Amino acid sequence: MPAPDVNILSPGRTWLVLVVLFLCTFVLGTAELIVPGMLNLMAADLHVSIPAAGMLVTANALGLALGGPALTALTIKLPKRTILTGALALFVMANLVLVLTDDYSLFIVARVLAGAAQGLSIAAALEVGSSIVPRERMGRAISVVISGFSVSAALGVPLGTLAGQALGWRGTFTAIVVLAALALVAIIGVVPQVPAGGGGVGSQARHAFAPRVLAVLGFGFLLCAAVFAALTYIVPFLEQVTGVSGTLISLFLLAYGAATAFGSFGGGRFADNDAARALIIGSCALAASLLVLFLAGAVAALVVLALLALGVFGMAMVPVMQYRVVTLAGPGAQLAQSLPASFANLGVALGSTAGGVAIGAFSAGAAVLTGFGFACATVVVAWATSFLKPPGRLVAEEPSAAARAACGES
């Protein structure tokens, strides 16, 4: 049977596929981010210290950062729906291990595998989303897929944490397994079989790791470092500098979460219009929001506005950066799809570590100032990378190789 013509899906079918991909990333994001909210419960149940339980977060991040690109390279020649179903099946099994075992070492292994499966799923989902829409709407398709992560942070994690406190953390992970299984069934039933395109691993890697692509990945690394240097320690900042506590802190964080969801959906439109310029404007706005947060941290109303801006502009740049990486990678776009998530996780690690050092040496405001320093660096890198162009006319003017193959072109 010939491959379906994914390039001429009806608008309704296209949106249905994107909704399924959104559900997939929502579940993946919730599973990744839920552990900190239940860390004390998991540590007590596993009979380990809080720092040891924190290694479950690190294990997932390392699995995503290293295992995601490795699995993407190994499966580069497989159809994308096949990759998605295999990756989600691995994700389901890894999280089922968390529900059924009490062995800490096995937990670490399962979190690494879950992270690797997540990285592979992200790359495949983005490839599918990019292939089923016209070239001029690719940025918006990417933003729909990626927005599952921001919505998981704004909605999935708070609800999952509440469920964990009420029913136990295993109940939360059981729900994640069920949702992931439903997403798997939906992918099998709805997502078209997008064929593999482009060359082999060697050919893909030459383009995916080209200096022009690495430069934009470096931007993403600094972007996440800037956001998480401040965000990781935003609760002590709100308590010590702004003077709010309890329920008010939750409201501040809810405002930030809603802003990230809004930003992730809107970022795709900016990517389609002018991705390079969008990164410059977004990084300037990010730096400004962190500076206002630092200088006006004692004024609650201005803090809310700064957090809203931080959420909108910080998250809006994520689909723009993904779009920029894919277009600059050209024939290496399939492998390049997996790299932004890896660099983002490394940036999160750097930002949270640097913010922790700053707050330990000085005060809660120092973490925000550290984030501002990283944000200033993103402005410079965004400007420098705005001059970079895709290789030839392959990506700039033609549909993706996967889409051409699906349409039966030679």
TrEMBL record:
The keyword Thylakoid does not apply. Its main location: membrane. PROSITE patterns: MFS. Keywords: Cell membrane, Membrane, Transmembrane, Transmembrane helix. It is a multi-pass membrane protein. This is MFS transporter. CDD domains: MFS_NepI_like. Residues 17-393 form the Major facilitator superfamily (MFS) profile domain. It comes from Amycolatopsis suaedae. It is found in: Cell membrane. InterPro entries: MFS (IPR011701), MFS_dom (IPR020846), MFS_Efflux_Transporters (IPR050189), MFS_trans_sf (IPR036259). SUPFAM superfamilies: MFS general substrate transporter. Gene3D superfamilies: MFS general substrate transporter like domains. Pfam families: MFS_1. The chain crosses the membrane at residues 15-35, 55-76, 83-100, 106-129, 141-161, 173-192, 213-235, 247-266, 278-296, 302-321, 342-362, 368-388. One of its GO terms (molecular function) is transmembrane transporter activity.
